[in-house]
Amino acid sequence: MRVLVVDDEPPARRRLTALLGHHPDVTVAGSCGTADEAVRAIAASRPDAVFLDVAMPGADGFAVLDELADPPAVVFVTAHTGYATRAFDVAAVDYLVKPYHRERLAMALDRLRVHLRHRRPAVGRIAVGTGGRTRLLDPEEVDYLRADGNYVRVYVGTASYPVRATLTGLLSTLDRNAFLRVHRSLAVRLDRVRDVQTLRHGELALRLRDGAVLISGRAYRDEVRRALGLPL
Q1: N or C: at which end does the chain have fewer Cβ atoms within 10 angstroms?
Q2: Other CB atoms within 10 Å distance of the CB of residue 214
Q3: 149 contacts: CB under 8 Å, gap ≥ 6
Q4: Where 4-aspartylphosphate occurs, residue numbers (predicted)?
Q5: How many Å is the Cα radius of gyration of the chain?
């Protein structure tokens, strides 16, 4: 599993990175010391999990999760015990209180492994209602997805179909190598993108093969460029 280490204290980052290095199936994708750095690093490297400090200067660890449309699995690592209830309210996989031992970290990693095995449902077709019937769309048919209140509109050429779901939830059932979130309310099938234009304020205009144009969010710019093989 690929993990990111977030802690405002450099010695703590180094110690945790060293301890994680004793687990052959764990790769530390990076480390950072502030909430802003963490948001950017998670968007750029898309780790499977993040070991996240709670109390940091400026925004705290919970603010990091608030900024992410599709956060990775989280293990909070903190010297404070008072945040445990809130941590599990945001579906943290585990909560490590410093100073912890190697054995306790190993337990957290075991919980992460189990969580990651069960997190992503099997990729399947998308059931959409069409005039009293249910049509089963293969993911290969879909051009893009747009959040629309309590629904997601699934676009196939000029047609669109509402599905009662969240964009995050629907994306979790699809191949993450085929679909990419480009905005808080938009995801596109990557092989549909035909050309890309950089706009004045840093957004990207993605023109699809059927002529539709999607505007990415600035926060997603680097991730979109990386996914499409464009220079950063």
Answers
A1: C
A2: 21
A3: none
A4: 53
A5: 19
Q: 30 forms bridges with which residues in the sheet? A: 4
pLDDT tens readout for residues 17-43: 999 999 999 999 899 999 989 988 888
Spell 19-45 as b/e; 16+ CB within 10 A means b.
bbeeeeebebbbbbbbbebbbbbbbeb
Say whether pTM exceeds 0.70: no
Q: What is the DSSP string of 90-150?
A: TT-SEEEESS--HHHHHHHHHHHHHHHHHHSPPP--EEEEETTEEEEE-GGG--EEEEETT
Question: Which CATH number belongs to the domain containing residue 184 in this structure?
Answer: 2.40.50.1020
As given in the structure block, the two tokens for residue 89 are 């309210």
Pick from 87-96, 122-131, 219-228: least confident: 122-131
Domain identity same for 135 and 38: no
Tokens of 171: 């994306």
Quickly tell me which residue has 């945790």 as its tokens: 16
Tokens of 155: 């676009």
